[in-house]
Amino acid sequence: MLTATRVDSEGEATMGAQYYGADSENGDRIDDPSEDALFMLVSDLNNSDNTFVVVQPDEDDPVWFTSVAVLDEGDYEIVRRDTARNEHEVTTATSINDIARDLTIWMAARDFPGRPNRQVSEF
């Protein structure tokens, strides 16, 4: 089983997702997965016992989720759903690189309670 470890501000190792987790059908889990971690999870999908991965906030009744499911002949079905924004999109893709990048960008735009606001300033 895959689990992410993070280091807090005092250099102590901590466990658990801050915002969301990725879970594969085969039981692999990665907390707050990076683009590389998503690439790895999707690469591990197959047609027999590990057919999908779901990413969603670690909370009861999450308002958004995304999933990737393996289809026949190297295609993947990607579902993005965000009830707070009334979004529901289903697409297919073949490039795992593109899938991991697109999901990372999409998830970065989601709302996470307790996450600090990002501010852009000019220097």
Provide the descriptors you would attach to this structure in a database record:
single chain; 123 residues; alpha+beta; six-stranded antiparallel β-sheet; two-stranded antiparallel sheet; disordered N terminus
Report Rg.
15 Å
Strand order of the largest sheet: 4-3-5-6-7-8
Q: Let me know the number of strands.
A: 8
Q: Outline, from the CA principal axes? A: globular
Major β-sheet profile: 6 strands, antiparallel
- Count helical runs: 2
Low-pLDDT segments, ≥5 res: 1-9
Q: What is the helix/strand order?
A: EEEEHEEEEH
Give the overall average pLDDT.
83
Measured distance between first and last alpha carbons = 43 Å
Q: What does this entry look like structurally?
A:
The chain has 123 residues and is α+β, with helices and mostly antiparallel strands. Helices cover 18% and strands 33% of the residues. The strands form two sheets. Strands 4-3-5-6-7-8 form a six-stranded antiparallel sheet, with helices on one face. A two-stranded antiparallel sheet has the order 1-2. Helix 1 (35-43) packs across helix 2. Mean pLDDT is 83; it is low at 1-9.
